[in-house]
């Protein structure tokens, strides 16, 4: 039996319970979507009563909001870290590092990221501002990177940078439908996508 002796230990225990709820919610949302995932199913998956969920979240919408934001946040943090690690590398190397980080996080946190892609629309409810803001911040990161590439004349000529950005993000996120770790290598995929967006001969 776990004995909680202080405020810090209690906060750690409660944080672990919150993450466990989100882990199960992400898995169910990925499989079943927004409408077919209920609070009762989430509670049963965690092994608690439905009423106990309300100690951590006020509603199903709040759980979904947290899952969607975490799905984007995991990828955003990974890409930022990859770009920071490249330092002053040439633009194609920075792009390739960002693509590899996006793909690795996308598939490394697949319940969250797939749920985020699948339930970005909150059914009949308005998409929360925090979700729009989180998604917008990540879009802006890629928009800035693509603009850097455009300034360096490193992009595929004849295609507007914004369309290339949309194509690239769509291609990466679309890999949730076909990527299998035993069939594809992320570093190789990153190199191939980089070559489509920023061919070596134009760098």
UniProtKB/TrEMBL annotation:
Instruction: Identify the domain of life.
Output: Bacteria
Keywords associated with the record: DNA-binding, Repressor, Transcription, Transcription regulation
Gene3D superfamilies for this protein: Tetracycline Repressor, domain 2
Which PROSITE patterns does the entry link to? HTH_TETR_2 (PS50977)
Q: List, for all copies, the residue spans of the domain called HTH tetR-type.
A: 15-75
Q: Which residues bind DNA?
A: 38-57
Q: Name one Pfam family in it.
A: TetR_C_24
**PANTHER family in UniProt:** HTH-TYPE TRANSCRIPTIONAL REGULATOR RUTR, HTH-TYPE TRANSCRIPTIONAL REPRESSOR KSTR2
Q: What is this protein called?
A: TetR/AcrR family transcriptional regulator
């Amino acid at each position: 039996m776990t004995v909680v002796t202080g405020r810090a230990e209690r906060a750690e225990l409660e944080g672990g319970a919150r993450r466990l709820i989100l882990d199960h919610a992400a898995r169910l949302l990925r499989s079943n979507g927004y409408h077919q995932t209920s609070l009762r199913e989430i509670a049963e998956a965690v092994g608690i009563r439905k009423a106990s969920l309300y100690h951590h979240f006020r509603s199903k919408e709040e759980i979904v909001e947290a899952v969607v934001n975490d799905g984007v946040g995991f990828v955003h943090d990974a890409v930022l870290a990859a770009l920071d690690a490249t330092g002053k590398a040439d633009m194609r190397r920075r792009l390739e590092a960002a693509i590899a980080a996006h793909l690795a996080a996308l598939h490394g946190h697949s319940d969250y990221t797939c749920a985020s892609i699948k339930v970005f629309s909150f059914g009949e409810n308005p998409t929360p501002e925090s979700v729009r803001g989180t998604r917008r911040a990540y879009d802006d990161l890629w928009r800035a990177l693509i603009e850097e590439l455009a300034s360096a004349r490193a992009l595929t000529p004849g295609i507007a940078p914004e369309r290339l950005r949309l194509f690239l993000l769509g291609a990466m996120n679309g890999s949730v439908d076909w990527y299998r770790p035993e069939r594809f290598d992320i570093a190789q995929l990153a190199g191939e996508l980089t070559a489509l967006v920023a061919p070596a001969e134009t760098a």
